[in-house]
Design a protein that fits this description.
Radius of gyration: 24 Å
Mean pLDDT: 84
Low-confidence stretches: 318-325
Number of helices: 14
Helix content: 40-55%
Largest sheet: 9 strands, mixed
Structural class: alpha/beta
Order of helices and strands: HEHHEEEEHEHEHEHHEEEHEHEHHEHH
Strand content: 15-25%
Shape: globular
């Protein structure tokens, strides 16, 4: 973070306009410790997204989870990467860097990323001048004519949830998903199950060790229903896989910041790229294949696993293929699917499931003990949240009524 901040300070001092939006809650310690002061001092525009305010009420829970960099309105990077040393790992301690995925964009689609940035900026700095048609340079063509579009979701819509559900529904051959915090709705889980039962090769890659452990435990409680439907689940063996990608039939993919959970789908501001370009999708397929080489597959008991292999072999469609990936990756994929050979390490679901339920059970008991001996630890924060939300909602409603009365006084009805 300090390296990037100092680079931005140097750029601002050299005459480059620097605008930075960071999430207030996600960067709470940096915000409180004055981390951004050098940028302010250099003249950069630095905005904290959604800091506490009475006027926002329950909207306080919304976070800006987008990760994007825009350079001269000509080049943009959209990814799942945060600016943090965790993504660099700790070589001295043998901790590998976090695994993530992003894309570089140029051409007209960059203006969609810019528009998403300007929209977020306007929520807190309405006076900040957005890019206009007169100030946007002509976007150069770079790397062909790939079809790509930006999905910029806000708490006011659920566009990414609809797109994710459509992707599952439209998959005919295969659906490969990498997700860092897998905690979907029952509707989405059932869509995955329906696709797998219809013969679609559904594979899910998630972290084994997560920086938010309770989400990993909740995810593991869902493995059994997925595995019984024929979905293949893999856990990343490294320190953390933070990528959020989906690939459908070798023809479509998405990359960005959206996780498969309610927070990303309905509460946060997220930013993803929808890609319809066989060459780019093929690269993402190759990445997924390499990731599986560093993952362990979670399987049912031997009897059920054998039955599932037989069922998958019967469901395989004549002429099944994996898009236009390179020959080596395509060969590996065909072997893995047709023969179901042990290309990957395996681990029984019982161990994962039991560990998850054990952690959840112990957590419930500890919470019960806290509530019994120290109920104020829960009651006081809840009272605070209700006071802030109630005050904000009341103030907002009062302002609306006041403005409405003023307009009525200025323009009385005949």
């Amino acid at each position: 973070g300090r390296q990037i901040r100092d680079l931005l300070v140097a750029k601002q001092q050299a005459g480059v306009q620097v605008r930075l939006i960071y999430d207030w809650f996600g960067s709470l310690w940096a915000h409180a410790s004055g981390f951004f002061r050098p940028l302010h001092a250099a003249g950069a525009l630095v905005v904290a997204y959604n800091p506490p305010a009475f006027s926002r009420g329950i909207g306080l829970i919304s976070r800006n989870h987008r990760k994007a960099i825009i350079i001269d309105r000509r080049t943009a990077f959209v990814s799942g990467l945060c600016i943090s040393s965790a993504w660099c790992g700790q070589p001295a301690k043998g901790v590998a860097p976090w695994r993530d995925t992003g894309v570089r964009l140029c051409g007209p689609v960059v203006q969609q990323v810019q528009a998403a940035f300007d929209d977020t900026l306007a929520t807190h700095r309405p006076a900040a001048r957005p890019a206009t048609a007169a100030t946007v340079p002509t976007a150069p063509v770079c790397g062909g004519h790939a079809q790509a579009r930006i999905i910029a979701t806000t708490p006011d819509n659920a566009n990414m949830m609809r797109l994710d559900l459509n992707a599952v529904t439209l998959a005919q051959d295969f659906l490969w998903i990498t997700d860092a915090y897998f905690m979907p709705t029952r509707l989405y889980t059932q869509a995955l199950i329906n696709a797998a039962q219809a013969g679609v090769d559904v594979r899910l890659l998630v972290p084994r060790t997560s920086d938010i452990r309770w989400i990993g435990n909740v995810s593991r409680t869902q493995y059994r229903s997925l595995l019984e439907a024929g979905i293949r689940v893999y856990e990343w063996d490294g320190s953390m896989i933070h990528a959020k990608t989906a690939i459908v039939d070798g023809r479509w993919a998405r990359v960005g910041s959206t996780n498969l959970n309610l927070s990303s789908w309905t509460v946060n501001r997220e930013l993803d790229v929808s890609i319809e370009d066989s060459a780019t999708v093929a690269q993402l397929m190759d990445v997924f294949v390499r990731d599986l080489q560093q993952a362990t597959e979670v399987v049912l008991d031997q009897h059920r696993q054998t039955a599932l292999k037989q069922a998958r072999s019967k469901q395989k469609k004549p002429g099944f293929h994996y898009g236009k990936s390179n020959a080596l990756a395509q060969r590996m994929l065909q072997l893995g699917h047709v023969l179901d050979s042990p290309l990957y390490r395996t681990r029984g679901v019982e161990r994962e499931e039991a560990g998850a339920w054990l952690s959840i059970g112990i957590g419930m008991l500890l919470l019960a003990a806290v509530l019994w001996f120290l109920p104020q630890l829960v009651v006081l924060p809840l009272i605070g949240l209700l006071v802030v939300s109630g005050t904000g909602t009341t103030v907002s409603a009062w302002r609306q009524l006041w403005r409405s009365r003023q307009r009525s006084d200025r323009n009385p009805q005949p």
